[in-house]
């Protein structure tokens, strides 16, 4: 059984993590710290855990060996640095840090501490995405030339995002910093680090941060990838498209269609795969297993992945603000 300390209830996914841990049969939530003591005490009562208002006392406790961090993004460097120094295994909500400099410094501290580290990149465990990656890696699409992924919702336009989601001093950014992380880490999952990146953001509803954003990156072999996100669109499922010289694949939500020259030759265009790969365990459950079995950070959810994601998202904002293409 893995004993876990919960760092903050701030993030919209924090409650889901607490529930997933409690239901796993492999982990026990022990104590919660929160930057907002009033909210923290209420959440601790709901989650049936202790509450500790002093972070230094919290992280020094010996009755848990791992932490799950759902704090404001801008607090990650200070909180997770202390967690690493205390020898705690670390699971964190994305991003690792807002700036590349902070992400690299924190990653070095975590690596030096030798603890298990996992960052939440859930689409990398998704069956449809794993199927698309298999097509790309196997060469079934020929030479891949382009791709796009979009994740968006109506949180601003329909006014259902909480007010604190627009406090840039806590979030570090807007749509690209939040939802935009998904297209960023998905395309880097398929193609690796980009060579260069350019981007635009906008604020149709004039909130405090970007509500609409598009990044365009050049990856290896001339692959052009579009990373799209927004808080101002309604009814849009996840959309992934990968284009190749021998075929293309399209993912809409959990549905996948494939078109290839080989399928066209037998008049069987737009084929839907009969089966998708099984879903991998969620990043959180991969973390729990890694902590229990001491197998190290799970592949595709580690420090290098976390730092690259911050580099790419920081490049989006730098490009938008400067009007220049950012070279990696």
UniProtKB/TrEMBL annotation:
SUPFAM superfamilies: Glyceraldehyde-3-phosphate dehydrogenase-like, C-terminal domain, NAD(P)-binding Rossmann-fold domains
Keywords per UniProt: Oxidoreductase
Alphabetical list of InterPro entries matching this protein: Gfo/Idh/MocA-like_OxRdtase_N, Gfo/Idh/MocA_oxidrdct_glycsds, GFO_IDH_MocA-like_dom, NAD(P)-bd_dom_sf
Organism of derivation: Leadbettera azotonutricia (strain ATCC BAA-888 / DSM 13862 / ZAS-9) (Treponema azotonutricium)
Domain Gfo/Idh/MocA-like oxidoreductase N-terminal: 17-119
Protein name (database record): Oxidoreductase domain protein
PANTHER family for this protein: BCDNA.GH03377
A GO molecular-function descriptor: oxidoreductase activity
Oxidoreductase among keywords: yes
Pfam families xref list: GFO_IDH_MocA, GFO_IDH_MocA_C3
Gene3D superfamilies linked: Dihydrodipicolinate Reductase, domain 2, NAD(P)-binding Rossmann-like Domain
Domain GFO/IDH/MocA-like oxidoreductase residue range list: 130-249
């Amino acid at each position: 059984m893995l004993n876990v300390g919960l760092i903050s209830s701030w993030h919209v996914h924090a409650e889901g993590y607490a529930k997933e841990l409690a239901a796993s049969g492999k982990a026990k939530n022990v104590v919660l710290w929160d930057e907002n003591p009033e909210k923290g005490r209420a959440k601790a009562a709901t989650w049936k855990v202790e509450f500790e208002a002093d972070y230094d006392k919290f992280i020094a406790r010996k009755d848990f060996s791992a932490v799950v961090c759902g704090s404001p993004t801008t607090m990650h460097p200070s909180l997770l640095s202390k967690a690493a120094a205390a020898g705690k295994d670390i699971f964190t909500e994305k991003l690792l840090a807002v700036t590349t400099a902070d992400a690299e410094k924190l990653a070095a501290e975590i690596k030096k501490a030798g603890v298990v580290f996992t960052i939440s990149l859930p689409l990398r465990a998704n069956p449809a995405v794993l199927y698309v990656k298999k097509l790309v890696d196997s060469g079934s699409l020929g030479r891949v030339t382009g791709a796009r992924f979009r994740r968006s919702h109506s949180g601003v336009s329909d006014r259902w995002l909480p007010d604190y989601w627009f406090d840039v001093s806590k979030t570090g950014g807007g749509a690209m910093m939040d939802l935009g992380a998904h297209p960023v880490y998905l395309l880097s999952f398929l193609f690796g680090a980009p060579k260069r990146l350019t981007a635009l953001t906008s604020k149709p509803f004039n909130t405090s941060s970007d509500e609409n954003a598009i990044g365009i990156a050049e990856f290896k072999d001339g692959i052009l990838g579009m990373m799209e996100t927004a808080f101002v669109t309604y009814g849009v499922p996840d959309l992934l498209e990968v284009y190749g010289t021998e075929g293309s694949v399209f993912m809409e939500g959990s549905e996948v269609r494939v078109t290839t020259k080989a399928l066209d030759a037998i008049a069987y265009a737009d084929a839907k795969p009969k089966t998708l790969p099984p879903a991998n365990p969620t990043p959180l459950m991969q973390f729990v297993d890694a902590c229990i079995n001491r197998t190290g950070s799970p592949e595709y959810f580690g420090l290098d992945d976390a730092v690259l994601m911050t580099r790419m998202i920081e490049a989006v904002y730098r490009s938008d603000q400067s009007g220049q293409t950012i070279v990696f």
